[in-house]
From TrEMBL:
<dbReference type="Pfam" id="PF11951">
    <property type="entry name" value="Fungal_trans_2"/>
</dbReference>
<dbReference type="GO" id="GO:0045944">
    <property type="term" value="P:positive regulation of transcription by RNA polymerase II"/>
</dbReference>
<protein>
    <submittedName>
        <fullName>Uncharacterized protein</fullName>
    </submittedName>
</protein>
<dbReference type="GO" id="GO:0000976">
    <property type="term" value="F:transcription cis-regulatory region binding"/>
</dbReference>
<dbReference type="GO" id="GO:0003700">
    <property type="term" value="F:DNA-binding transcription factor activity"/>
</dbReference>
<dbReference type="GO" id="GO:0005634">
    <property type="term" value="C:nucleus"/>
</dbReference>
<keyword id="KW-0539">Nucleus</keyword>
<dbReference type="InterPro" id="IPR021858">
    <property type="entry name" value="Fun_TF"/>
</dbReference>
Length: 491
């Protein structure tokens, strides 16, 4: 596998996601001068506001694969492991990033600090920009993964592991730079460079038979997967090349211990992969393709983190139902709806909001104000509500023809609007737990067309735009589709 990838790469020049034709021609003509020995770092006195022109860069040589060349980190992993030999090579998703006008050919060698060859990234970091990127990950990104983790593994343990693991550190820096490039004028080239650098150590690591047991390597694939998902439309495309990278790791780990009894760090990684597959399932409107490890779906007494993760497993079951072959089964539908109600009835009272106001003017149209005091309570509410609205819409007993269909559709739309407003209200009321905005955005993308009031539509549209502007995810490519469904195209 590795030899095949290297041979393939030899015939491909490096391209970056945000590369313009002008920059590309510059690489082709002057690639040799980037291979010189890098100079020392030229630290900027204000790394937060001065993102470009900071450090020396060593452009990866042509033997390094580019994410635009048909092989991403996860598709490469999937192709390598024999447990997935039946899976063919999938094309990469189309990236929507525009060429960055801030990058000029003369700037390309001053954007990314070049670590000396074969030198691990050790603390303290020598480069101010890398310190800024790591700090941004800790404070503004790690919660993507730690949203229901009471031990915050991705903001603590993962960062400690990255201290002596260059692959993991480069994945973190790539993701941090990618989000900054989507939420500010930070140069997108920086993320692409760290992405490439991560490949340089990730691909050779697969030659090692023990690599599959490396938790740091698994964490790196999960982090890179989120980075790649930031370039995918929220709905309508199936990023199949990204789906199975973590699969082989999870299967191999289960040879040592069950999916629910392994070390807490690996459990955190499993659940992060599981949630990512949830979003892919909703994006593409298709069932799970990730191996589902044994998850606790009981209603037995447990801590709040476990109760929250049960809602994630439940949402996965619901996605498999509504997008799978069982979607016409009334018995399965009744079972899932019963499980949804049972969770709401038997969950600990710690999940009760400490403040709940339905709306501010009693119109029934404003988003409710629902405040919780713990992040797992916020996310549990969001996941169980999103599962409920999916079940409401995909009720197999709904009449499909005749007057009763119109009447049923009206009742369903009322339930859908209530659930979507709840999701948006929780998202607005618990801003520090920013991942709670993502289930709301997916619900808007899936069911926003069921809102007919213009004020409602403006509120939903603003939620999508604001979330992407603040967090760089999820991409809002469906706004135009919603505007057309609302009849805004002629306005």
């Amino acid at each position: 596998m590795i030899k095949e990838l290297e041979a393939l790469a030899e015939h491909r020049a490096v391209q970056f996601l945000d590369q313009s034709e002008e920059i590309r021609s510059h690489y082709d003509s002057d690639i040799s001068r980037f291979e010189s020995t890098p100079t020392g770092p030229d630290l900027s006195p204000d790394p937060i506001t001065t993102y470009t022109g900071v450090e020396n860069v060593h452009t990866p040589s042509s033997s390094v694969m580019s994410p635009t060349e048909g092989v991403t980190v996860l598709s490469a992993l999937n192709s390598y492991f024999p447990t997935h030999s039946h899976i063919g090579r999938f094309p990469d998703p189309t990236f929507s990033q525009r060429p960055n006008p801030l990058v000029r050919p003369s700037d390309t060698q001053h954007l990314v600090y070049q670590q000396p060859p074969n030198t691990p990234v050790l603390w303290p970091l020598e480069n101010e920009q890398e310190a800024m990127l790591l700090q941004h990950y800790i404070h503004h990104i790690a919660l993507f993964f730690d949203m229901v983790d009471d031990k915050d593994h991705f903001s603590s343990h993962v960062v400690r592991c990255a201290k002596q693991n260059s692959t993991l550190m480069n994945a973190i820096l790539a993701l941090s730079a990618r989000q900054l490039s989507r939420t500010s004028d930070f140069d997108a080239y920086v993320a692409d460079a760290y992405y490439q650098r991560c490949f340089q150590t990730l691909i050779p690591a697969l030659n090692d038979s023990t690599a599959i047991q490396e938790e740091s390597l698994l964490a790196a694939t999960i982090i890179l997967r989120l980075m790649e998902e930031m370039n995918i439309s929220i709905i309508g495309s199936d990023p199949q090349g990204h789906l199975f990278g973590a699969q082989a790791f999870i299967r191999a780990a289960e040879r040592q211990y069950a999916g629910t009894t392994g070390p807490s760090f690996r459990q955190a990684i499993y659940w992060a992969a599981f949630r990512q597959e949830l979003w892919i399932s909703l994006m593409a409107r298709r069932p799970f393709r990730l191996h589902v490890f044994p998850a606790d779906r009981s209603l037995d007494p447990a801590n709040d983190s476990t109760w929250a993760t049960r809602t994630i497993a439940h949402l996965g079951d619901v996605c498999n139902f509504v997008f799978g072959e069982e979607r016409h089964s009334v018995a399965r539908y009744d079972q899932l709806m019963s499980e949804n109600r049972a969770w709401c009835e038997r969950r600990p009272d710690s999940f009760d909001p400490f403040f709940h106001r339905q709306d501010r003017d009693q119109s029934g149209r404003n988003f409710p104000d629902i405040r919780f005091h713990e992040k797992m309570h916020v996310m549990g509410k969001q996941y169980i509500t999103l599962a409920h609205v999916l079940l409401v819409v995909h009720d197999p007993t709904i009449p499909q023809l005749g007057p009763s269909h119109k009447q049923s559709r009206q009742l369903i739309d009322e339930k859908v609007q209530k659930d979507v407003r709840t999701l948006c209200g929780v998202a607005q009321s618990n801003g520090k737990v920013f991942p709670c905005k993502f289930p709301a955005c997916f619900a808007i993308a899936l069911f926003g067309d069921r809102f007919t009031d213009r004020q409602d539509q403006h509120r939903l549209r603003e939620m999508l735009i604001q979330t992407e502007a603040e967090h760089g995810f999820p991409p809002t490519a469906t706004i135009h589709q919603l505007e057309e469904a609302w009849g805004w195209s002629g306005c």
